[in-house]
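Example 3.2
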Amino acid sequence: MTDTSAEFLPARERRGRRILWLMRALSGDPMAVAATIWLLIVVLAIAADSLSLLGENRISLKARNLPPFSFGQSWTLWLGADALGRPLLVRLIEAASTTIGIALVTVLTSLAGGTLLGVVAGYFGGFVGSLIMRICDIILGFPTLLVALFGLYLFGPSVSNLVIVLAVTRMPAYIRVARAETLEVRERLFVDAARVFGGGPTWILRTHILPSVAPTMLTLASVNLAMVMLFESGLSYLGLGIQPPSVSWGLMVAQGQGYLSSAWWLSFFPGLAVMFTTMSFNLLANWFRIVNDPSQHWRLVSRRR
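Structure, written as tokens:
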């Protein structure tokens, strides 16, 4: 059966073909494959830690500042130990669950809120649309890091405050993109036809506008994952993010900076984890953008060749 008849296939078979095509497209991009493998390793490590398969993160003064690659020790000490003798590998995995968890919650919050406000501003316009866009302009008028520092200093450093501050500062980007996409989609013929046949605004938004806007918003969200991770790590490094006894990669870098001359690994490995993870998110975001843009599919074909 040819590709032109794929739309007449059952939904289950269409999904199967779509998944197979995505796997082939992914296999044709070595950098995206490497990014996927790294993120899968991180996810599996977080799952193992949540199931207590890595052992407890106990203090052991005998292993204080143990150097890495000491393969005669337990495998949890192969990346060394911190100033209290805790396995650095276990600490890295615990910090990964915190850093990535905060980034995911923040991005999902800003994605949902920003898309909803942007679609409303673009479809209805008027006073409500102008008010939403002026608030966006006010937020964008200040540097993101400055707003985050002021908000966390004012309300206190905590996980919930960190998520709220980062979500609010990232939301204007989603609102602007969603509004621009909505302004273009609402003028298309299928939206006019839906109005002629009596479709209400809520039904049109849910059935036609949001599905058309969703691919662009998801691509933007995948890019923002890496950016939010960097902001969270930077705020934790400055002491306004995650607070002990919780741990994040940025906090681990801050805690290890006093030992750079004697125990470089305390800051090096958390910083390396941040770099690899943000690079992986950026590479997958670029691949996702190409996959969702039919005009860019020639890049996938050229890479496979």
